[in-house]
Amino acid sequence: MNFDFSYTVDAMPWLLKGALVTAQVSLLCFVLSLALGTLLTIIRTLEISLINAIIALYVSFIRGTPVLIQIFLAYYGLPVIGIQLDAFTAGIVAVTLNSGAFTTEILRGGLKAVPNSQLEAANSLGLKRSIVWRKVVLPQVYLTSIPPLVNEFTLVVKATALLSVITVVELFRTAQQLFSSHYHVVEVLIGTAAIYFVFCFVFSRVSVVIEQRFAVRRP
Amino acid sequence: MDLDFSILVEHREVLINGFKLTIFIVICSIFLGMVLGAILAIGRMSQRLYLRVPAVTIVEFIRNTPFIIQAFLFYHGLLALGGALPEVLVGILALALYSSAYYAEILRAGILAVPHGQSQSARAVGMSYFQSLRNVVFPQMWPIALPPMASQTMSLVKESSILSTITVWELTLSAQSVQGITFRPFELFFLIAILYWGTNESIAFGIRRLEKLLQKRQSRRVSKEASGRAEYVT
Asked: Of A167, A173, B6, B101, which has the maximum CB count within 10 A?
């Protein structure tokens, strides 16, 4: 069989439209997961053993099970226990909960890198707890966590491709709709893969640049 | 809320077969992926451009695109080229190729973490490139490479669920087919989530044991060598 790459070119406008949805969904999930991860990291420092055990179980469950199954559970499983979500929301919830577990672990690592003397200094100045977190600890945690967080973002972008299975019309679903009409699967998929590649590759390069720039600011 | 877990017992045969196939696919892909990964890692570190460029291209392409796209591309690419392989084989090859890129990066990082003087001295005493890798570099890089190897293997187990979209009858597709008959998504997906979780926890446990074993053996060997040397000196 011959490949006809004019199909790749023809598909591009639609694929780019799908890519916009992928970008929006990824960004939304990532921001939400960063918020979730920050919240859980702060809660974890309170050292309430029951809550910490629950967080540990949540992280372990997410890390041990496929995203695909988590998406299925959110979309097909939750209605059974009375929570009905449309495909888009269920997808956002699943990917956010998935990424949130990884972000929590990343931020835990970043928190370890903050020297204890910083906390002692902040406390001895009589700063309020919320101020200590907002102005002293979290900025340093985020700064040291930039490379793994960017890596996590590319993982989120790749995970959103799975939302196609629950009929969210993002990049991959758009591609499927295109090739199911004319069966030039490979040509369309190459265009799709190229868009994902550019998106993820640019971000991972940016992270390297950021890392080098901020390396100066780190002691 | 009404949950009925008896359907799991009723359809256990399909589910057990799916789980067996998942385990089979995972084991094959781990071995194949590691071999391919080692080749890619050595290719990527080669001085020769015609080895390095393809290795870098493959690794970066795989790392920066979703596995579901790779699986589809692999499956439909083979079909279009006229090579109709059994789905299971396509699944194993796709998964092995996917994980090989990640294994390659881990191996490369491990090899680079061993001080360059080590391999240079090995070459200086007359070892070939592969001898120095096997006898000098590999034994020293395991403590560095093993933990990321473990987490990559766990994500291989997870990604194997995506093979359900290219009609490989592994655990996820088996569960989907049973759900098509019983309309019990929660029970089914919860069960297979537990199965994947259990598999991954077992891998994590196994690797931790292996790590301890290697550490013990390493320290024993070092102490034996040290005592041997002491005898020689006296």
From this structure: B101
Do B63 and A186 touch, CB atoms closer than 8 A?
Answer: no
- Domain spans, chain B: 6-233
Task: Note the pTM of the prediction, 2 decimals.
Answer: 0.90
Q: Residue B196's closest chain A neighbor by CA?
A: A65
Dist CA A8 CA B65 (whole Å) = 17
Domains of chain A (ranges; CATH) run 13-215 (1.10.3720.10)
Q: How much is the pLDDT for B73?
A: 93
Q: Which of B15, B69, B95, B155 should we substitute to test contact with A (largest number of A Cβ atoms within 10 Å)?
A: B69
Tokens of A156: 């989120």
How does pLDDT run across A32-51, given as a tens digit for each residue? 999 999 999 999 999 899 99
Nearest-CB residue to B201 (from A64, A159, A196):
A64
Evaluate whether B189 touches A61 at the Cβ level (below 8 Å): no
Put simply, the answer to whether A161 touches B3 (Cβ < 8 Å) is no
Q: Is the dihedral of CA A124, A128, A129, A131 positive or negative?
A: negative
Closest approach of A157 to chain B, Cα-based (Å): 8
- The domain defined by B6-233 folds into MetI-like fold (1.10.3720)
Give the distance from residue A121's alpha carbon to the nearest chain B alpha carbon, in angstroms: 35
Tokens standing for residue A173: 């679903």
Partners of residue B1 in chain A, C-beta under 8 Å:
80-82
Rounded percentage of chain A residues whose pLDDT exceeds 90: 67
Complex-level ipTM: 0.90
**Average pLDDT, stretch A55-75?**
95
Across all residues in chain A, what is the average pLDDT? 91
Which chain A residues touch B196 with a CB distance below 8 Å? 64-66, 69
- pLDDT (mean) for B139-157: 90
The count of C-alpha atoms lying within 13 angstroms of the C-alpha of B169, restricted to the half-sphere facing its C-beta, is 11
Residue B81 phi/psi, 5-degree rounding, is -80, 0
* Residue tagged 């024993």 (tokens): B220
The secondary structure element, H or E, covering residue A185 is helix A185-215
The pLDDT confidence band at residue B102, using thresholds 50, 70 and 90, is very high
Q: Which of B82, B159, B197 sits opposite A64 (nearest CB)?
A: B197
Between CA A179 and CA A10 the distance in angstroms is 11
- Give the chain A residue nearest B66 (alpha carbons): A158
Where does the pLDDT of residue A183 fall: very low under 50, low under 70, confident under 90, or very high at 90 and above? confident
